[in-house]
Amino acid sequence: MTMTNEKKKVLLPFWKDALMQIAAGGTAGFVEICIMHPLDVVKTRFQFQRGFSQSNYASISDCFRKTIKNEGFLAIYKGILPPILAETPKRATKFFTFEQYKKLFSFGSSVPTAQSLILAGLFAGLTEAIVVNPFEVVKVRQQTDQQQFSKQKSSFETAKLIYKEGGFGTSGLNRGLTSTLGRHGIWNMIYFGFYHNIKAYIPKSNSKGMDYFWRCLAGFTAGSIASTVNIPWDVAKSRIQGYHGDSTARKYNTCIQTILLVKKEEGFRALFKGLSPKMLRLGPGGAIMMIAYEEIYIYLKKKFH
Q1: Per-residue model confidence as pLDDT tens digits over 64-99
Q2: How far is residue 62's CA from residue 12's CA, in Å, rounded to a whole number?
Q3: How many angstroms separate the CA atoms of 297 and 295, rounded?
Q4: pTM
């Protein structure tokens, strides 16, 4: 009788477990984006600033100061609607597909190996990139447009304009898809691979506070390392998807062409533009997102088991 009850506690119907993973992932993403979005605006401005004629940004605080002074306070939240609209499906896709790929690459084993966790992260990132890229195109176009916030087109109008320019293909709402695949695939491969492998070595503690501390540290470290490794693809993505005036010919068109051109014209260090604000966002963001997901998922399992 006891064994039967234990099995019932452990085994959930696939659809119920999937819904819990989707709900937990979407909520975690929403929380993270609302807290950390201004740093994403700064990161994108740094990566794209060679194309700006009005100003260059010397530091993170300088970028915040100039953006608020020239465009208004709400400018640091430019482009937030597309990621908010995308965060639920994006993070839901990330965490749900990671769990499914983890099972797939474990090949029937109940305990995933280090390699299966890394592969699961990679494929979860590639899947996420396909879902989120049209939202990213709209977001980056808005973030790199230096008009006053009140004069800027809405997210919906921007999406309509991009669709009119190039449809749903790689000249329109899926511009820069290969860069997005590289950015998300690499980031998630390192993030999930590092976090879940290192988590096994976290010291066991009866203190909830210490448990949170070690898990936050693991999430922060995973997010920081992933952000450092994948940033050349992020720079390429910003250049390809960024705002271009009607009279300006597009200089950046494909992922590898953009990486090589940036390196040739601006040097190797230019491929790491925006690294500081990105790490300030995705280091803490990596911790927030993982802890939020795990806690919400545990709560939902207890509540709706």
Answers
A1: 888 888 888 888 888 888 778 776 777 888 999 999
A2: 51
A3: 5
A4: 0.81
